[in-house]
Amino acid sequence: MIDAEKIKEIIEEFFVKSGMENIEVRTSLSAGDGGNPKYSAFDINVMTSDASLYIGEKGRSIEAFERVLKTVLKKKFGEFIVIHLDINNYRSLRADDLKELARKAAHRARLYKNDVALEPMAASDRRVVHSELSAHPDIKTESMGEEPRRRIVIKYIP
Length: 158
Fold this sequence. Notes:
Elements: H1 4-17, E1 24-29, E2 40-47, H2 51-55, H3 60-77, E3 81-87, H4 90-112, E4 116-117, H5 123-133, E5 139-144, E6 151-156
Parallel strand pairs: 2-3
Antiparallel strand pairs: 1-2, 4-6, 5-6
């Protein structure tokens, strides 16, 4: 098993070399790995005072850093490591907002018995919405369109 402390050191070094100041990195074994022995999965939260540059518009910079860090870690450890990178809790706060958006859109779909199309969003954001509404038997979610304009349509099922 990969050591979380070693991952933390590598990520700290990566962001310090990228110019990030006042950095604190927290790593933990991901609860979402399902106990799969084929790979290690870690939740990583980087706290910094200059977060906006590293978050980017709608979290796009976080996604890019996550891809680069996965490559760095694979090269360092010789195996695929799943990481879920967050900066200043941006992704977790965004997930909360997306869940609320999903619940409101589902309510509108039920109320008006009409499809509700959400704005285009990244695959990771769509996954949050699909997951949030999956337990509702009277609601169906569908991704439609092509990237980067792919969106979710929420449908009421009577």
